[in-house]
Write a structure and sequence with these properties.
With 51 residues, this protein is mostly helical. The protein has one domain (3-50). 55% of the residues lie in helices and 12% in strands.
Length: 51
């Protein structure tokens, strides 16, 4: 099993194109640091990403 630790960029863009599930299919486990969650839920983040 591979584990991925991602910053906000790939999560942001994959969400915007409706393909964020590809990470789980490719890697199984994805660890998202708390700071990345904070960036993705920030009011300045794109609405689709925050939702």
């Amino acid at each position: 099993m591979r584990v991925v630790v991602a910053d906000s960029s790939p999560l942001n863009y994959l969400t915007l194109i409706g393909s964020v599930d590809v990470l789980h299919r490719l890697y199984g486990t994805i660890i998202v640091p708390q700071q990345v969650i904070a960036e993705l839920t920030d009011p300045a983040a794109p609405r689709d990403v925050r939702g």
